[in-house]
Every structure is written in structure tokens, then in C-alpha cells.
Sequence to fold (279 residues):
Amino acid sequence: MGTLEDRLAVLDAELSAVPGVLVAFSGGVDSGVVLAAAVRALGPDRVVAATAVSPSLPAAERAAAHDVAVSLRVRHEQPRTFELSRAGYVANAGDRCAFCKAELVDVLMPLAARLGIADVVTGTNADDLRAGFRPGIRAAAERGAWAPLARAGMTKDDVRAAARRWDLPLADKPAAACLASRIAYGVPVSAERLARVERAEAALRGALAGAGIPVRDLRVRDLGDDVARVEVDVARVPEIAARPELLAAVAGFDRVELDPRGFRSGAMNELLPDPVRYR
Fold:
């Protein structure tokens, strides 16, 4: 496997081999490291960051992404995407992410072409390729986007180590999957549901901070039938369970549950049948 230095050298070589790149930049640490690595390899004038304007991305995430792009001195495009116009995305079956990534890359490829850039790259890392059911990765690759981190064999730990080495503000940023990942499979995705989850998470995080209970990871999952399930850092579950009034911050649902197992990335995938989850 080599050292982190070896993998960073491969990453640099992969990016240096192309004239320029458009980075699909969500504002997270993975795509942030790709963006920073591209700037190091090519210079800021040959790199463009693109962050989708979509109901599935919280406005706060988009604003933070812009700040990072500005700090790296790269052009920041914010094209609108229309996932909600895709029936497969709205239907929210187990392959929802494929429709989301298809929409994203179908918007970014023409944008890159207009800017004279041939290569669109994503923040998929080597761990993502081993994570089981990830239909979005395949959809992006089928449309010509490629993943420098994965090519270099960089894991999530490598990515965070690189971010710290380069003093990126994203180094310790928690995972922030799109808002649609909070909606249970089979429950149709809508702009209203996405906005409700975004408001609920922001309100609950604020209420917990006000109560002196800081949390790193927090999700409000929409289970359908106006039922919400809250996931937070497992170490914080007993404190919050002892103060059920805090869950009142999660507005717009008839019932709000606290998951005793705590936050788990990709928890909604646990509800998929095995043949779908691992195909």
C-alpha cells in the first residue's frame, strides 16, 4: 500500500497529467482535498470548483463551500441541478443516489465543456469503493467523471491526514451526506420533505448547544407517516434521552424518536434487503 506520501504523490501525478479540472465540490473533506490537491498540481487558474444549488444540499453547506473555494483562489460555479425532475430520484428506491449523481454529472459535464475543461472529478475515495452498495459512484463513472482519490488508493483517514497537513479548515468536518439520505427508502422525496429535515436538524443542533450538549454528528431521519428518528453521537444519547423536551425542537413531525444506537453513517441502508444492498 505504501505510505501517505506515496499516495499523495500518485494523486499529484494523476491531476498533473490533465490540462485542468472541474471538481464536483460538495463542501466536504473528500472533495475539498481533491480541490486543494488540484490547485497544488495545476495552479488555481486551471481549477474550477462546482457546487450544486439543490434542495438536497443545505444552504449552510453551500456557503461554507464557497468560503473554501475563495480561500483556495479558485473559480466557484454554483449551477442549479434538478434531481426532483427525475422520477427515479423522487421514487426514492434503493438506487436513488444513481439518479442524483446522474443529474449532477449531466449538469457539470456541459459546464466544464463551456469553460474549456475536459475532466470532471469527484471526491470518491478508496473506502467508498469498498463500502458495498453505492449506486451513485457507478452513475458518475458511467458519465465520464473520475475519482482522483480512489485512483491514488487514498482512504478516508488519508484524506483527513492530507487536509491537516495542508491546513484545510475541512480536516475534522463531520460527514454531511445530502438531505435526501435522511428520507427512508420508499418515501417519496420532495422539496418540502427536504426543507423540513434541514430545518429540524438546524433547530435541534441549536437546542442541544443551548443546553450545553454539543454534538458532532446529528441526523433527523424521516421515516414516513410523519415519524422522525433522531441519531446523535452515541455518547450523547443518555443525556438527550434524559431530557426528552429537547426533541421538541424537531418540528413538523407527529412523533419524534431517539435512536438508542446513535449516529450511523448510511443507517437507511440497513433497511434495504440484502440482495439490493450488496449487489
